[in-house]
Amino acid sequence: MFVLPRWVVAVGLAVLLLGGGLTAPVAAAAPPGGGVQAVTTGLGDTDCVRADGVSQRESAPTVGVNQAQPAAATSNGPAVRTGSADTDRRRPRERGGDTSGSVGIPAASMERGGATSGATQADDGDVIRQTQTYERVPAEPGEVAVTLAYEIPDRVVNLEAHVPAEATVTGTDGFERVNASVYEWDETADPATIRYRINPNQTIDKSGPEGAEGRYISVDTGEWALLTRSRTPTRWSYIGQDAVGFNRTVETAGPGAAGEEIVYLGEVAIFEETTHNQTFTLVVPERTTMTASPIAVLDSMTNASNALRVGDRDEQVFVVAAPSRAVDWGVEGYQIGDADMWVQSRQTLDTANNVWLHEYVHSRQAYKTTRETRWTIEGWATYYAAVLTLEQDRIGFDEFRNHLAAGEQPIYSSVALADPSSWTNTANYKKGALVAGRTDVHIRAATDRNRTLQTVFQSLNGYREPVTQAQFLTEVETVGGATVRNTAATETETTATVTVWNETRHRQLFGAIPARIGYSLPPVERSDAYRADSVYRSNASVGGRSPIRLATNETLAIDTVVENAGSESGAYNVTLAVNGSVVAAKQGQIEAGARTDVALRHTFVDPGRYVVGVDGDAVTVVVSEPAAATVTDIAASPREVRQGGRVAVTATVANDNDIPGATTVEFRRDDVVFAQERVHLPPQATTTVTRTVTLDDPGTVSVSVGDGTTATTADVTVSTERTPTPTETTTETRTTAREGDGFTALTAGLAVLLAALVARRRTQ
């Protein structure tokens, strides 16, 4: 392995953060069955059901899974770049993965043995592979052992790993300690590992719709454990142009199941259902008694998946039915990361406060909020959990109405949702849900039910930066018009009293499910759904792996998926965005229950790395300058000619690269160019080019073909006798043959006639 001296990479490492780790929490009471102190998180008393719902979503996210930093040039070595991973809980979304996204690996379907899941990035060159393995420590209730292992490619010249600040490190192999929570790779082991123990017991103070009587959100009872994985920020430096990827896998050493963020240690049964481009994995611990059947829970969640046409569908949804009676949980449900969640096993589906659906709705909220729009996180999840349960015919309108009517209570008369300082008694849940429903009603009424609040939801999911109040209102106006915007502004920015609509109004606007139009990208594995057009190739399949690779000036065509899950036809407007900016769009009508592909195109002129997205789905496209095709062989025919003869010279040109290639082929006679041709080739392709040359000088003539870098030569022998042209030869031959044959026949005929006449005269 090539390793740069540490002083060479010093500039590149200057951007890395040392120290840090996670802030030490405050101690709290021990859980039942455990003999250790609990650890309190910094989540406070709001929005606990979504771990990143407040503090992390009010500002721009920190560095994502693998962010390549600018190169640090050195005078004595190659440029050094830096990357980082796991510095933020919620990663950007992407089909097929790589540095801008993730593809979850489904939990193993088992009842015993280890389980594996992961946040992975598709292989793109070299990849750092991190594995977190969790194991209970039966002799020490309240402790979980973690093994953090790294497989590190050769181009990485430095790597540092952070373990939780409160962790107790029990051993390392291939790492040197920098401080209490930071360890530096010393290049002596493969894989390099850090072994540590953590206290999984975390508590929270929570009241409101999702609050429970206890305090725990993560626990080890001594017989089983339910916890969130450790954040292990990793930073590295590497050489080379292509970014070094990062692949994280979460495993259990014994019985259990692991998602991307949540880990259960203990015996489990696993139920799984795949539909609407999502795989739902429901983990039911051996010690759990569920109120709703696992099949019913999966059916309800997959139904919600189909009904919510708001983008941001994660390929993997990981749900644990947390044992309700064994622990004094602090919340009824808890959602973290992209689509990991746990819900207390006693929760039913037949209630307007459907926690199973509440947490699922959170997994579909990809947008970040500002202070003014923060209420939408819990308000919309509460509203949609209730209205989806009503649409599934699990509750009646009266229960639905009473649930939303909680937002009418006098305690909320001084609440302005856009001002969190005015919130009292979980106003963001209760008044927030009521205002969300009213906005939905106003939009449906203004558009004759052709559009709903889901259209606004869908638009917000496309924002890369936190959504401001002005942007929220603009999206409402775009969907429902100026009057609806003004009403939404009044109901969110002032303390105006709001009320629930009646059943007659509900039947008018919700009776038939209006058009529910959703947009998505096809799976990157569908190679024919991604096609390239250029001088190199025509309508060629370029999918099948991530990233998609193109050459400059190639046009990418994508068969975007448009689907209407409603019971009425509607208009669609599907847009293609590149790095967040819309570059193409198509409009049309789609019938109820229909699904169709709509091709969108964009030409990539400049090299670079691009995130191409449709309604929250995204793929990465890497555009490079064309590769250099090469001349690999020459053929000359014939190899022997007379003076003035013509020789066909054929060049074999190959492109052995994974991107299109081009070269200019030069044909030479005794080092003098007699022809040129520009050749364009698709990836991994070969072609031939032929040019003809006339050879007039006798002797051995050298003909060659080259690409400017290499040349291949063949010798042709030219004899001294000039070769007659085909026309001259044919004419001379044909003419000579006709004159000779005609004269001979005439002479013979005359001789016979003369002889006959002489003979007759003599007879007379």
Question: Could you provide a short overview of the structure?
Answer:
The chain has 764 residues and is α+β, with helices and mostly antiparallel strands.
Number of helices: 11
Q: End-to-end distance, in Å?
A: 122 Å
As a percent range, the share of helical residues equals: 10-25%
Q: Widest sheet: strand order?
A: 1-2-13-14-15-19-18
Please summarize the sheet with the most strands: 7 strands, mixed
- Roughly what is the average pLDDT, rounded to an integer? 81
Sheet-strand content, in percent, reads 35-45%
Features:
764 residues, alpha+beta, 7-stranded mixed beta sheet, 11 helices, 43 strands, 20% helix, globular, disordered C terminus, transmembrane
Write the layout of secondary structure elements.
Blueprint: H1 10-13, E1 26-28, E2 38-40, E3 80-85, E4 103-105, E5 116-120, E6 127-136, E7 144-151, E8 156-162, E9 168-173, E10 175-177, E11 182-185, E12 192-198, E13 202-203, E14 216-220, E15 225-228, E16 234-239, E17 245-252, E18 256-258, E19 262-265, E20 268-275, E21 278-285, H2 294-307, E22 316-322, E23 333-336, E24 340-344, H3 355-363, H4 375-391, H5 397-405, H6 427-446, H7 453-460, H8 469-480, H9 482-493, H10 503-510, E25 517-520, E26 530-533, E27 540-541, E28 548-551, E29 554-564, E30 570-578, E31 581-590, E32 595-604, E33 608-614, E34 617-624, E35 627-628, E36 630-637, E37 640-643, E38 645-655, E39 661-669, E40 672-681, E41 685-695, E42 699-706, E43 711-722, H11 726-763
Parallel strand pairs: 2-13, 6-17, 21-22, 22-24, 28-34, 35-39, 37-43
Antiparallel strand pairs: 1-2, 3-16, 4-5, 5-17, 6-7, 7-12, 8-11, 8-16, 9-12, 10-11, 13-14, 14-15, 15-19, 18-19, 20-21, 23-24, 25-29, 26-27, 26-29, 29-32, 30-31, 30-33, 33-34, 36-38, 38-41, 39-40, 39-42, 42-43
